[in-house]
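Q: Entry one of two.
A:
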Amino acid sequence: MLVVHRLRRTAAQVAAGTPADRDRALDGLRALALLAVPLGHWMLGGLTPGGGVLHNTSPLATLGFFAPLSWGLQLLGVFFLVGGYSSVRSLERARARGVGTLGWLRGRSVRLLRPVLGVAAVWAALIPLLGALGVPQGTVRTGTVLVVQPLWYIGVYLGLTALTPYCVAAGRRLGGWAAAPLLAVVAVVDLLRYGSWAEAMPSWLALVNLVPGWMFGYQLGVCWAQGRIGRAGARTLLLGGAALFAVLLLLFHYPASMVGVPGQERTNSHPPSLLVLALAALQCGAAMLLRERIARLLRRPLLWLPVVVVNLSAMTIFCWHQTAMYSVALTGSLLGGVPGLTTAPDSLGWALARLAWLPVFGLVLAVIGRYARRFDGPWGWRGPLKAAAGAGAALFAVYALGVV
């Protein structure tokens, strides 16, 4: 009862300290999209021993019923929607203070890159340390791949942030339709790479989808912030996205999983296919329509408190959640095959066991985050320490490029 009382008191204090004009719905959507990242990686990724080494595996390779689960865990459409909306508001505030676009972009970039440099510097030290402790090189390589997997989204997000002025101009000129050309580009590229003439297409063609594919949700967020998408537009996105998703899945036989599956030649996310944009349209439309309802729910202190905690720890969660899972799996591998942790993800039993491991991953992430959060804010380190961290991050980047 004492714990509950303290929780209620803390929640009430946080709620009382929240500005009245705070967009709680946007924070709630950001927290939801962010938490889907570790949950998706933890549920749709596995680690199994082979030849004395831990290897990356996925339940999607053998458990077909996991594919629809990826539709709900892949919330990148909402992630970029909120990102576009927030960037517009942030740029407007910066300009009101007399800060130019380049100054604003520099500030945003520094805030995003500090945590990435932090995790890279730590892993640069961990790689030789793990080797010295007797961890096989292949297992260290597996950990590196896990850590790098989510970090590439930071690069994509930085690129989209740099394009914010263009997105704003496009939104002013075309309204909500500013996202339509992006959808068209991805559709044409998919037609070329999946049609009967696909063998004659160059291998790099799929990379054309990289920018328009992820910019789609971001551009919708920009238009939403500009007031160019109302409820009618949101319903169009929801229904149109759902219809397109069904057509692509049932008639054009797109892979059902929204993430890559070992052994499958086609993937929806690397780079994004038209199915990803259809799902993003559906999710973004739903988010827009539910905005007021979400805002009302988050007026309740006990619901608002975890949203605040997640948003304050956003980059820590994003950068370190794979390290948390890897740490638990590496420790568990000393005991042999541990169900749901270091056994093949090929049964319902594995899925149930993995669910039981989620709180453990979360607890380890919280412990890591207690110390890793210092990378999020300004580094109070002097020259030699900063130089060492930068050199370590550079070395990890070189190693990671070779591994990935």
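Q: Entry two of two.
A:
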Amino acid sequence: MTKTISIYGVQVALGAIALVAGYAKLSGAGPMAQQFQALGLGYGFLFAAGTAEILAGLCLLLPRGGILGAVLLSCVMVGALGVTIGHVASTVAAHPHSPQFTATAIAKQSPAERIVIVRPRAAWDI
């Protein structure tokens, strides 16, 4: 009996957390909106994530809807993880704004003795 009560207690706590987070997303709270803007997602995704979290929270508050709520909340979390990893991967793969080649020139007295070395920029170049 104690095990069942503790499982339902955790389920209700997760449901309440999901409801609060979904409400914050739907109301456009500053930190929630800033996170979506930083990832390049608009208010449509903010609305969809908030709605899904509220539905998952409501399902988690009901004993028989726990499985559906857990699956829905898992989908939201996996989607958030995928978008975050994709954003980080695209940022890492982006080309730096610095020049890609380093040029070294030594000018002597005449143009025939001029040496120019062009090589790819290395990570340790200053």
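A: Comment on entry two: The mean pLDDT is 78. Helices lie at 2-27, 30-38, 43-61, 66-93.
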